[in-house]
C-alpha cells in the first residue's frame, strides 16, 4: 500500500534543499538569539536575490561569520571585511557585509537593553506566533503593517538591510507568523510548536 505524498507549500517543491528547509525549519518558532542572528544576517544577504541562492551558501556563511556569533561579528575590522569580500562562498557585497557587522553591534545593544534579542523581537507579537489561514500562495503578503512597524523600529535601532519585505520574510522564517498554507502538512506541526 503506497502512502500519499505529503502536501507542501508549492514554493518548496522546486528543489530538495528548499523541501528540506521547508519541512524542518521554515515557520518553526525560534527563540534562541544565535539562530535569530543567523536568520537576520541571511535575510539581509538575500536582498535582491533568491532564497535558494542563500540556502546554497549557508554553510559557507556559518564558516565565514564565526558560526553567526554576534559578539565576534561585531568586532570585525577592515582586514576581516577584505577577507569576506574575497570569499566566493558568500555574497560578496560590501554594503551587505558591513551591514552584518553593524547589525551585530546593534543586536548586542538590544540584548543589553532587553535581556535578549528574543525578548525584544517576540514582544511585537505578544510572545505568540500569528497563525494565518492562507489557502493559496497568492494570498500570502510580502509585507504587513506589523512588518512595516518592526522594520521602522529596527531601523531606529540602527539596523541595516531590514526593509519591511525583508522583515516579513524574517518573521516567516523564524515563526513569528505561520504562513504555511492550510493544506500543507507543516501548518499544524508549526502551529503546535511550543517555546
Task: Write the topology of this structure.
Layout: H1 16-24, H2 33-46, H3 51-64, H4 70-73, H5 78-85, H6 94-114, H7 117-122, E1 130-131, H8 145-156, H9 164-173, E2 177-178, H10 186-192
Parallel strand pairs: 1-2
Reported CATH architecture: Orthogonal Bundle
- Number of DSSP-assigned strands: 2
What's the helical proportion of residues?
40-55%
Q: Sum up the overall morphology in one term.
A: globular
Along the chain, the helix and strand elements come as: HHHHHHHEHHEH
Oligomer: single chain
Compute the average pLDDT: 95
Separation, N- and C-terminal Cα atoms: 37 Å
Please, what is the CATH homologous superfamily?
Answer: Hypothetical protein, domain 2
What does the main sheet amount to?
2 strands, parallel
> Which structural class do the helices and strands define?
mainly alpha
- Which fold does the CATH topology refer to? Endonuclease III, domain 1
Strand order of the largest sheet: 1-2
Percentage beta strand: under 5%
Q: Given this structure, which CATH class is correct?
A: Mainly Alpha
The rounded Rg comes to 17 Å
Query: What's the tally of helices?
Result: 10
Polypeptide structure, described:
The chain has 195 residues and is mainly alpha-helical. It has one domain: Hypothetical protein, domain 2 (Endonuclease III, domain 1), CATH 1.10.340.30. Helices cover 54% and strands 2% of the residues. The protein has helices at 16-24, 33-46, 51-64, 70-73, 78-85, 94-114, 117-122, 145-156, 164-173, 186-192; strands spanning 130-131, 177-178. The model has no long low-confidence stretch (mean pLDDT 95).
Amino acid at each position: 500500500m503506497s502512502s500519499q505524498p505529503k502536501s507542501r507549500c508549492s514554493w518548496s517543491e522546486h528543489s530538495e534543499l528548499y523541501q528540506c528547509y521547508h519541512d524542518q525549519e521554515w515557520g518553526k518558532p525560534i527563540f534562541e538569539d544565535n539562530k535569530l542572528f543567523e536568520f537576520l544576517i541571511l535575510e539581509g544577504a538575500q536582498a535582491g536575490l533568491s532564497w535558494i541562492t542563500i540556502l546554497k551558501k549557508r554553510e559557507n556563511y556559518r564558516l565565514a561569520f564565526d558560526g553567526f556569533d554576534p559578539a565576534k561579528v561585531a568586532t570585525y575590522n577592515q582586514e576581516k571585511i577584505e577577507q569576506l569580500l574575497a570569499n566566493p562562498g558568500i555574497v560578496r557585497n560590501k554594503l551587505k557585509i558591513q551591514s552584518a557587522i553593524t547589525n551585530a553591534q546593534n543586536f548586542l545593544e538590544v540584548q543589553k537593553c532587553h535581556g535578549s534579542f528574543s525578548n525584544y523581537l517576540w514582544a511585537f507579537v505578544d510572545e505568540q506566533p500569528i497563525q494565518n489561514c492562507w489557502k493559496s500562495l497568492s494570498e500570502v503578503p510580502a509585507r504587513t503593517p506589523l512588518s512595516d512597524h518592526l522594520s521602522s523600529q529596527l531601523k531606529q535601532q540602527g539596523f541595516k538591510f531590514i526593509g519591511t519585505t525583508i522583515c516579513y520574510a524574517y518573521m516567516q522564517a523564524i515563526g513569528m507568523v505561520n504562513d504555511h498554507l492550510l493544506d500543507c502538512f507543516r501548518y499544524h506541526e508549526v502551529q503546535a510548536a511550543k517555546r
